[in-house]
Design goal:
It is built from 6 helices and 10 strands; from the N terminus they run βαβαβαβαβαβββαββ. With 216 residues, the protein is α/β, with parallel strands linked by helices. Bound molecules: NADP nicotinamide-adenine-dinucleotide phosphate. The site of NADP nicotinamide-adenine-dinucleotide phosphate has 24 residues, from β7.
C-alpha cells in the first residue's frame, strides 16, 4: 500500500516507518525539517518536507505521492511534561486545522483510507477539541487510533510508568501496522490489547457505532 505518513518523525511515526517499509509498503514520511528528512530517507521512506499548515504545499505533496492511505501521526507537544498545559492550544490547532487540511489533501489525492492518532483518555478541559477532531475523522470514513499514555524511550515516561491507560511506545507502533485495513471506527490501543470504542457523538453520516468488543 502507498502510505503518506504525516508525523513520520514523532515518537510513534519514527518507529512506524521501518515497520511499514519492512512489511512491503511504500511510505512517504512528512517532516518540517530538512535535517530529519535525511533520517527518514535512511529508514526507507520518501521524505517530504512540508508544514501541515501550508495547505497548497500539503495538497501538492499528497496528490503528488498518490497514496492509498493518509496516516495522521501529527501532534504539537513539548519535550517536557510540565509544559503540556502551555502547548494545549497548539496541539488543539494541529488536531483541528491540521486534520482538516490533511483530510482535504487526502480527498484531493483520492486516498481511500485515513487513520489518525488520538488518545485513550480525556485531559481536563480538552475533551471538546478531541471529540471534534475524532468526529471529523469518523465523518470522513476514517479510523481513530486512541493510544494509551506512551512510555519507553523518547517519551515522558522513560524510566517509570504512567497511570493507565498506557502502552509502551514500541508496542504502540507495532500494534498500528495490522490496523491499516480496519473499517471506520475507533480503536483503543493499550497494553491490554486493541479494543473498539463508541464515538462521543454519532458520526454525522449516521453510521452505527462499532460494538465495544475486544478485537485482539
Ligand atoms: N499518547 C501519548 O501519550 C502521546 C502521544 C504523542 C506524543 N506523546 C509524547 O509527547 C512528547 C513529544 O512527542 P513527539 O516528538 O512525537 O511529538 P511532537 O514534537 O508533537 O511531533 C510529532 C510529529 O508531528 C510533526 N509536526 C508537528 N507540527 C507539525 C507541523 N506544523 N507540520 C508538519 N508536521 C508537524 C513533527 O514533525 P517535525 O517536528 O519533524 O516537523 C513530528 O513528526 C513525547 O514525550 C511523547 O511521548 C505522548
Amino acid at each position: 500500500m502507498r502510505i503518506f505518513l504525516a508525523g513520520a518523525t514523532g515518537v510513534i511515526g519514527i518507529r512506524l516507518v521501518p515497520l511499514l517499509v519492512g512489511a512491503g509498503h511504500t511510505v512517504a514520511g512528512m517532516t518540517r525539517s530538512p535535517a530529519k528528512a535525511s533520517s527518514l530517507d535512511q529508514l526507507g521512506a520518501h521524505p517530504v518536507v512540508c508544514d501541515v499548515f501550508d495547505t497548497p504545499a500539503l495538497t501538492e505533496a499528497v496528490v503528488g505521492f498518490g497514496p492509498e492511505m493518509v496516516m495522521h501521526q501529527l501532534t504539537d507537544l513539548p519535550d517536557r511534561v510540565d509544559e503540556l498545559g502551555a502547548f494545549a492550544p497548539r496541539n488543539d490547532r494541529i488536531r483541528l486545522e491540521g486534520t482538516e487540511s490533511l483530510l482535504a489533501a487526502a480527498a484531493a489525492a483520492g486516498a481511500r483510507r485515513f487513520l489518525a492518532q488520538s488518545i485513550a483518555w480525556r485531559p481536563p478541559g480538552r475533551g471538546e477539541a478531541l471529540d471534534r477532531f475524532e468526529a471529523m475523522v469518523l465523518d470522513a470514513g476514517g479510523v481513530v487510533l486512541r493510544y494509551g499514555q506512551l512510555y519507553g524511550p523518547g517519551t515522558y515516561y522513560e524510566s517509570d510508568l504512567p497511570p493507565p491507560p498506557r502502552i509502551h511506545v514500541d508496542e504502540a507502533a507495532r500494534a498500528t501496522v495490522p490496523l491499516l485495513d480496519h473499517p471506520t471506527g475507533i480503536v483503543v490501543l493499550t497494553d491490554e490489547g486493541a479494543s473498539s470504542a463508541a464515538p462521543a457523538a454519532p458520526p454525522r453520516a449516521g453510521r452505527s457505532p462499532p460494538p465495544a468488543t475486544w478485537i485482539t
